[in-house]
Amino acid sequence: MSRQQEIQGVLLHLVEPDVLTVNWVGQRELLTQLLAAWTVIDDGDLPLNPRLLGKPGVGKTTLAYAAARSLNRQVYIMQATMDTRPEDLIVLPVVGEDQKIRYVASPLVTAMITGGVLILDEGNRMSEKSWASLAPLLDARRYVESLVAGIKIEAHPDFRFVATMNEDSSTFELPEYIHSRIQPQIFVDFPDKDEELLILRENLPHLHDSMLEYVADFLQKAHRADERYSVRDGINIARYAAKLVKSNGTEEKAELRRSIKMVLGDEALLYAD
After folding, report:
1. Is the pTM of this model over 0.85?
2. Cβ-proximal residues to 129 (8 Å cutoff; 6+ apart), any chain
3. Are both 61 and 167 inside the same structural domain?
4. Which residues in 99-108 are b (16+ Cβ under 10 Å) and which e?
5. What is the pLDDT of residues 3-29, one digit of tens each?
6. Which domain holds residue 213?
7. Distance between CA atoms of residues 193 and 217, nearest Å
C-alpha cells in the first residue's frame, strides 16, 4: 500500500503502523466485549467507539492491540497528553529539505484512510479543545477537518477507534458531548492469580515457575489491599530478580524481595513473604 494519499488536491504522507510483540492472556470476556462494540450488524449500522477504563498497567493497550490484530487490521497508537493539540491529532505541516511544506497525516488520520484501528492512549489527559476536533469523527458523520491543510477527511468503513483511560488520572474533565460519543465503557480490572500467572509465563517463559508463583502471590496480596501494583510491575520485579540471581549467584527469594524494594519501594515489602 502506498504511504501517500491525495485528498482534495492535498498530498498526505502517511505514517507506519505500530507493531507490538504482545498477546492478550486471560479475561477473554473483555476481548469479546471490545470486538462486539466494533461489530457492524447491517448496512445502516456503525461501529461504536469504546473506552477502556482501569488502573495503570492492567493491560488496556494490550487488550486493544490484540483485538485489532484479531481482525487483521493495522494498528496505530497515539499517546495523548495535556499538550496534545488538534493539529497533532489530524495533520501536521512539516518543512522538507527542499524547504517545501509536506503534510503528514497523524496516526489517527492514517488509520482513518487505510481502514486501520486507532488506539488513543490515556485519552483523559487531553484537553476539550483537542477532543472537540474529533467530535464529528466519533458520531455518524465519521470525518475530521484539517484547518492546516484545508481538507475534510472521511473515515474508511473499516476504521475503528478505541480510547484507553486510567482511573482517577484525568488532566481535564471530558465534556458530556464526548462522553456520549465514546461508549461503551469497558472496565479492565486486575486479573486473578491464575490469569496473572499466565501473563507472567507468557512474558517470562525463561524464568523458573517458583519465581513467577512468588510474584503472582505478591501481586494478589497487593490487589486485596487495593494497592495499584500491576502485572507490569510484577514482570519488572521478576526480570530484575532473575538478573540479580544470575549476576550474584544468590538465592531467588532474597533477590525477589530486594527486587520488590528496588522496583516499588520499601512499603511494597508489606506484601512480600
Report:
1. yes
2. 85, 86
3. yes
4. eeeebebbbb
5. 899 999 999 999 999 998 888 887 889
6. 193-271
7. 7
